[in-house]
Amino acid sequence: MQKPKLGFWNIWNMSFGFLGIQFGFALQGSTMSRIFETLGAAKDDIPLLWIAAPLAGLIVQPIIGYLSDHTWHKTLGRRRPFFLIGAILSSIALLFMPYSSEVWMAAGLLLVLDASINISMEPFRALVADKLPESQRSYGFVVQTLIIGVGTWVASNLPKWVNNTLEISNEAAPGVVPDSVKVAFGVGAFVFITSILVTIFTTKEYSPEEMAAFDDAGEPEEKKGMLETIMGTYALMPTIMKKLGVVQFFSWFAFFAMWTLANPALTTHIYDAPKPDIVEYAQLDDAGEPILDADRVTLFLNDQSAADYKTADKAYNEASDDVGSKMGIYGLTSMLFALLLTFYTSFKAINRKYIHMASLFLGALGFLYMFYSPGEPDNLYISFSLIGIAWGSILSMPYAMLSSSVESSKMGLMMGVFNMFIVIPQIIAAVGGVVLLHNLIGEESIHAMTIAGIFLVIAAFSNLLITNKKAIMYQPVLENE
Question: Which parts pass through the membrane (predicted)?
């Protein structure tokens, strides 16, 4: 028996929770490095402080994938219990994150936030394969990408909008996160839980019996424990997954470089407004640390030093707001790219491999162009627009190619295992890979964006490894209707 095809609004509702998930990821991606810098982290230490995020994914994703494959709740179904648990935990972490007073506290909350987002996100990928027939899966992943694009654009602009529209200050004392960022994270927490609830209340899942009756259910799997099943999946990884994994490795290394170092790189190289070092303006103790008064307020050298620090910090915060806003462009263009694919794939066949390859080349051009744009913030519209095309493809094409080549009954686990090709490159980048590579070019942090461009070029060429015709070719949704 074939799964029935779903209409646009059914697919939209089942994917709508990704809006909240992407609010969490976008606030994290556009603002976490700013928070770390505000709390006193050195530029080259920032990628390592991010390591909690990919580590959480490496551990959580396959476990949640396995558990969601083997869960059935009479009210919430198979995937939705995990949507709800992850949403509650993520919203709490978002609320507390900007109130961190120390770097270690922010890094710890980042671990909680990323692990919680993964609890919600991982089953969303599998839900597309659960609910949609083969002919609609690319369509389903593209709709998810459309929603992700909206979330990225809006969430990345939140701190700037809060400051400009609500007139909530983006300035704060040394070591304190501005109120505009705190409000933005609060809005993010509300959107996260609300959008997940929309999906939970509007989407019905197929029961295990219904899933078993569909043609793509595959053979009943042998009963094994979770650890044995996960390790067995790693050992017997399909060839298509390995080849796609190479593409994913270089793609996600590039984007991790952007998320961790775009703010220090661009505020310095494009805006000439780096985060001011409080040590240059404050009175210092014998250990070279700023002296605080009884109210834990920094004592400056004199009134002029205090004014100079405030001016430099204001310039940095305004530049950071603008960097975050312009980063949101990649979400907007990924949304438009996804919308174009949605309409096109409704009527025409596509070659997923070559679309993904071309998209990654355009993203690489966007990263490389940043180096040639000092003092030209408007050029970032071009860079992030091109990066958005790559991002839109990264969020849809690899998953569509993979879902066409694995059994539906193991889709959650397969998606979880596949995501190791997302988290491993991020871990390598975090422990020094991105800093080491960009220092080979030069000490300026803008070279992290150059490395991102080079890695996307390698990712693009890696698509040539993919030869599975079933994965590559996609037939239109309306075929035979």
Answer: 7-27, 47-68, 80-97, 183-201, 244-262, 327-347, 354-374, 380-401, 413-440, 446-466
Residue with tokens 């305004």: 318
Q: In this structure, are residues 199 and 21 in contact, taking their beta carbons and an 8 Å threshold?
A: no
Per DSSP (E only), the strands in 270-410 are 350-351
CA 155/CA 322 separation, integer angstroms: 13
> 331-343: per-residue pLDDT in tens?
889 888 877 876 7
Q: Distance (Å, rounded) from C-alpha 151 to C-alpha 295?
A: 39
Which domains can be identified in the chain, with CATH numbers? Answer: 8-206+235-474 (1.20.1250.20)
Cβ atoms 269, 474 nearer than 8 A: no
N residues, the chain: 481
- Each residue's pLDDT tens digit, 362-380: 999 999 999 999 999 999 9
What is the residue whose two structure tokens read 């312009």? 326
Q: Within a 13 Å sphere around the CA of 368, how many CA atoms are in the beta-carbon half?
A: 11
Who's near 3: CB < 8 A, 6+ residues apart? 131, 132, 133, 206, 214, 216
Using CB atoms within 10 Å of the CB of residue 92, give its burial: 0 to 12 exposed, 13 to 18 middle, 19+ buried.
middle
pTM, 2 dp: 0.79
Q: How far is CA 306 from the centre of its chain?
A: 37
DSSP characters for 94-133?
HHHGGG--SHHHHHHHHHHHHHHHHHHHHHHHHHHHHHS-
Q: Which residues contact 30 (CB under 8 A, 6 or more apart)?
A: 155, 156, 159, 259, 263, 323, 324, 327, 328
**Considering just the CA atoms, what is the radius of gyration of the chain in Å?**
23
C-alpha closest to that of 146 among 422, 346, 341: 341
What confidence tier does 477 reach under pLDDT thresholds 50, 70, 90? very low
